[in-house]
Amino acid sequence: MELMDRLSSDMKSAMKNKEKQRLNVIRGLRASMQNEAIKLNKELDESEATAVLNREMKQRKDSLHEFENAGREDLAEQTRFEMNVISEYLPAPLSNEELESIVKETIQEQNASSMKDMGIVMSAVMPKISGKADGSQVNQLVKKHLSS
After folding, report:
1. Predicted TM-score (pTM) of this structure
2. Which DSSP string corresponds to the chain?
3. Which of 2, 14, 67, 91 could crosslink 23 through cysteines, CB 3.0-4.6 Å?
4. Which residues are in coiled coils (predicted)?
């Protein structure tokens, strides 16, 4: 898997450059991926690896929100750094226009016309975007188009 290779390569360069924070984040990402591979009892493909990265990013976002609410700027800054490192390995996010066109296209493909069809549309859209957009953003767009 090319993502694991890239993480290994970046880990080596972080060691050479004595980038301790970056090294810790990369090691954590590799460990999460290896744990997922053990759990699934197989080598991760790109979509599974991206799902692990998205899960790690979501955890950081939740933590960042909590740290900011608690006034812990030191921890919030560390979490922002970790999020920046993780984002280097995630696929480029879809623009709002691209996401909106995928949602509209999927609604037409599924012949969805009301909010009752929300689950069908969401289950059809999510594989198409595979980690390139936030699920809550997709959910809002689907609601918007189904309710209008």
Report:
1. 0.74
2. -HHHHHHHHHHHHHHHTT-HHHHHHHHHHHHHHHHHHHHHTS---HHHHHHHHHHHHHHHHHHHHHHHHHT-HHHHHHHHHHHHHHHTTSPPPPPHHHHHHHHHHHHHHTT--SGGGHHHHHHHHHHHHTTSS-HHHHHHHHHHHHH-
3. 14
4. 4-50
